[in-house]
UniProtKB/TrEMBL annotation:
InterPro entries: ARM-type_fold, DNA_alkylation. PANTHER family: ARMADILLO-TYPE FOLD (PTHR34070), DNA ALKYLATION REPAIR PROTEIN (PTHR34070:SF1). It comes from Lottiidibacillus patelloidae. This is DNA alkylation repair protein.
Amino acid sequence: MNKYIGHLKKHFEDNRDNEKAIPMKKYMKDHFEFLGIPSPIRIDLTKQFFKEYGIPEGKDLHTIINLLWELPEREYQYIALSILDKKKKQLSETDIPFLEDLITNKSWWDTIDAIAPNYLGLILKKNPTIVETYVNKWLSSDNIWLNRTAILFQLKYKKDTNKELLFNIISKLAHSNEFFIRKAIGWALREYSKTDPVAVTVFIEENNDQLSPLSKREGMKVINKKKKEAGM
């Protein structure tokens, strides 16, 4: 076993709580096993481990993250994301296939919703000339998590959001019956409504028949809340 992984596993196995693992597994629809370590404790343990053993560099970065991704307990994938978070400013276009592999393996909303806006979004923002290539690839994929990635990669762009691109992506996926696509559409619209509520309102009104009730409800949540607060 890789020494770094060996030390890490011992560090976290010593804090395993099988009773707490049961509801955690249930919450994630029984898709993954859990060590049963609550998030605040896991975060503290991760900080302690990084302080003692450091963070993988260079070629070791992909190796360690892939090894963590292979472990059955979900906490190890969260630790992998913590490592990525420490190194996100160093990520480049060459890391995109690696990140796509993480998205399409052990896929669920918890990891995709970190990878799409925090890492792929960051890379594409720095490399605008490749955005169209990857967006088209993700949109044409049969993998719903890559579809969701196309919707969410601009989630943190705020005023830098390419709204025409966002609305085009949503229009192309609005027909989907997948809950996680409909939810992502609503989330992306809701987030962008904090920057441009008029554009989001107009888009939803003009695409009322195409968007699902869930997407519309989520997309208008912030706008409707502000209207209510203003007595409108």
